[in-house]
Amino acid sequence: MSKLQVTPTFVNTKNVRNFQVMMDALALGAGEGRLGLVYGRAGRGKTRTAQWYHAHNDCVFLRMATVWRTSELYFLQALCKECGIAAPAGRKGPAFAQVVDELLTRPRPIFLDEIEKLPKFFLDLVRDISDLSTAPVILIGEDELHSYMQQNRRVWSRTYQQLHFQPIEVADAMVYFKEIAGVQLPVDAAKLLHQNSGGDFRIIRRDTLSIIHYANAKGTDQITVDLVQLATKSGLTGR
Amino acid sequence: MGYEGSFTNTVRHHVLAHIRETGSREFTPKNIVDRLDIIREKEKKPVYERLCEFVRRGEARRIETGRYEYIGGPQRQATKRDVIWRFIRARRTVTVADLQEVSGASKDYIRKYLRLLVRREVLRKNGKSKDCSWTLVKDAFRPPADREDAAYQKRMRKQRRLKKREAESALDAAEISASSMLAAIERARTALKELEV
Fold first, then answer.
1. Which fold would CATH assign to domain A170-236?
2. Which end of chain B is more exposed for a tag (fewer CB within 10 A), N or C?
3. CB contact under 8 A, B101 and A10
């Protein structure tokens, strides 16, 4: 029996497919400012999907930092750098103009991750950038981001697309396991793996590695329910 | 996208400058012709042709006759290096497995590229094991140019050219011999016919 190998692969889950559909729909409104909203509980792969999309397409990705709470300047300067502006201005107004100019010349989607950490006036700033540059801005965050945006009428009316990242499904877990380990996971075992994860992709990933490790230690490539139970339990206790 | 000095690029620069000045993505051919200081009708024609080319490529959209909207440059297919570089910039600290997952490139290719970035002092390797992480220490919008890779690509292009030339001459020779063979067969057939008569 050959050992199970781990092949890191990005799997097109249902959420990823919905994300791509959302991006295509946002592209239809080219020529006017528009926002997109991606929200859901932590661990469902929102950030990973956005980073994957950003890596394969010409986009801007920026993870918001808590230290920017007090000043928009740091945010604008970071955005300038992500847009490819080598020397961002030292003041808010010129830095804002630089970002708008750059995006007006080369419009591309902007992903802003974890924006709900920052005060609400940042939403208006983002709205201004999108309106003036006509670039789509996609805000990514946890469940509270939805109400955070809904409270601002002007922002909400410009939100063309919203996507709730759903818990991972059993079929997704099976496909993921097949892609990573190269062997089929029986339905019962997949159901157990899914149940233990609560739909959290991060836990599925962790438990998949644990299952492969246990299978290799036992010298088998037959994944059984018992093996999954053993591997997931040891994962939850931190082994 | 056209090379830097091409007329297509000149037209594109003027379209972009017009967008920057007006703050709107809409423009008319007259806007561009005026910016280029073109008066004669004959000289205007190449500008119109370039605008049609933009529409064909999906770079611009014709709203109505004489009114266009600039959408943006045609997107180049991202190479594996582009994907790896963008992902490093987004995450700042990465592992080879992360990059393998996102880009689909082989481990060896990724390690080779990461080592190049370390040599260029763009990345720092954390630890010495195979599964260690790599952190971005010098951020730049574009990845550092890989001169070794450029030289390698040049060598490969030269080799491909030589091989193509060799294959073409071999094909020519084969064609010549085939046609002479056909001629010989034809002569034999004629001789046989003559014998029958």
1. Helicase, Ruva Protein; domain 3 (1.10.8)
2. C
3. yes
Chain B residues close to A8, C-beta within 8 Å = 97-98, 100-101
B87 to A101: CB separation less than 8 angstroms, yes or no = no
Q: Which CATH number fits domain B7-70: 1.10.10, 3.90.320, 1.20.120, 1.20.20?
A: 1.10.10
Q: Alpha helices, DSSP H only, in A106-186?
A: 121-133, 144-150, 153-157, 170-181
Find the closest chain B residue to A50 by CA distance. B90
**Residues of B whose CB is below 8 A from A54:** 86-87, 90
Mean pLDDT of B119-140: 88
Contact A8 B101 (CB under 8 A): yes
User: ipTM of this model?
Assistant: 0.85
The string of pLDDT tens digits covering residues A14-35 is: 899 999 999 988 887 777 888 9
pTM exceeding 0.90: no
Mean pLDDT across chain A: 89
Is the pLDDT assigned to residue A60 strictly greater than 90? Answer: yes
The contacts found for B90-95 with CB under 8 angstroms, 24 or more apart, are: B90/A51, B90/A54, B90/A55, B90/A61, B90/A63, B91/A51, B92/B135, B92/B136, B93/B126, B93/B133, B93/B134, B93/B135, B93/B136, B94/B133, B94/B134, B95/B131, B95/B132, B95/B133, B95/B134
* pLDDT (mean) for A199-207: 88
